[in-house]
Specification:
By secondary structure, this protein is α/β, with parallel strands linked by helices. It has a single domain (3-194, 224-252), classed as Rossmann fold, CATH 3.40.50.720. It contains 7 helices and 7 strands. Strands 3-2-1-4-5-6-7 form a 7-stranded parallel beta sheet, with helices on both faces. Strand 2 (36-41), helix 2 and strand 3 form a beta-alpha-beta unit. The protein is globular. The chain binds D-gluconic acid.
Length: 264
């Protein structure tokens, strides 16, 4: 098998929310495979600059752009600037996302809408404006970062599950509409990973920590670097006939109904 199938030399990848966590881990993987990384965040320029410095220390070519992925005008402006200053975007990873853990009956409508806005509407907004260039060039890769919650519900994450379930179907529809332009749209569904987002439910002694380790056949939380392979595969020539799939990187958790606590 020629290793060039997975080579991303000369490609430009925009990874939204890539200043930390899973977005940074996937962007690092794409960078190590040769892609130039467009680093995005919306919190502070300082965080973006620190992330760019990290990528460069890893010998990855990276440039940072601060913009809010939920603001269509900001997205249009940012994509125009990126394509002028860096070049055409070959790979888009819609990773930016938030979660709010609240029982649905207690959740404010504004909070529900904000989760939907960031986790579902923004992948539509960014994809809509990046795909125009991909259609012109008849080539492109879009990866939507879905979740276990694209398949399963869990107490207190109803808004997030609704968004991520919708993102799975949006991925299938993007694949349906854009495959004829040689654009492959797929998803990555992370299982439970050790990140700042899961820190509140992972701290030692938290019941959820033991639950996940017991519920996951691999018997551990994922390491963000475990996502790099799926990101490289779905960004490379190796996936040129793969459309509309969500690749779950979850240690087997979705494959099983789990086991009794006292069973090995
Ligand atoms: C939670 C977690 C999950 C994971 C991930 C699973 O509260 O259940 O935050 O949502 O972060 O999305 O795929």
């Amino acid at each position: 098998m020629s290793i060039s199938l997975f080579n991303l030399e000369g490609k430009i990848a925009l990874v939204t929310g890539s200043t930390h966590g899973l977005g940074m881990a996937m962007a690092k993987g794409l960078g190590k495979a040769g892609a130039t990384i467009i680093v995005n965040g919306n919190s502070s320029q300082q965080k973006i600059d620190a992330a760019v410095a990290y990528y460069k220390k890893e010998s990855i070519n990276a440039i940072g752009y601060k913009f809010n992925v939920t603001d269509e005008n900001a997205v249009i402006k940012a994509i125009q600037t990126i394509e002028k200053e860096v070049g055409a975007i070959d790979i888009l990873v819609n990773n930016a996302g938030i979660i709010k853990r609240t029982p649905l009956e207690d959740m404010e409508v504004a909070d529900f809408k904000q989760v939907i806005d960031v986790d579902l509407v923004s992948p539509f907004i960014v994809s809509k404006h990046v795909v125009k260039g991909m259609i012109t060039r008849k080539e492109g890769k879009i990866i939507n970062i879905c979740s276990m919650m694209s398949e399963l519900g869990r107490n207190t994450v109803g808004a997030y599950a609704a968004a991520k379930g919708g993102l799975k179907m949006l991925t299938q529809n993007m694949a349906t509409e854009w495959a004829k332009h040689n654009i492959q749209v797929n998803g990555i569904g992370p299982g439970y990973f050790a990140t700042s987002q899961t820190e509140p439910i992972r701290v030692d002694g938290h019941p959820f920590n033991d639950f996940i380790v017991n519920r996951t056949p691999a018997a551990k939380w994922g390491d963000p670097d475990d996502l790099a392979g799926a990101a490289i595969f779905l960004s490379s020539q190796a996936s040129d006939f793969v459309n509309g799939h969500v690749v779950y990187v979850d240690g087997g958790i979705l494959a099983t109904i789990g086991k009794p606590n006292n069973e090995e």
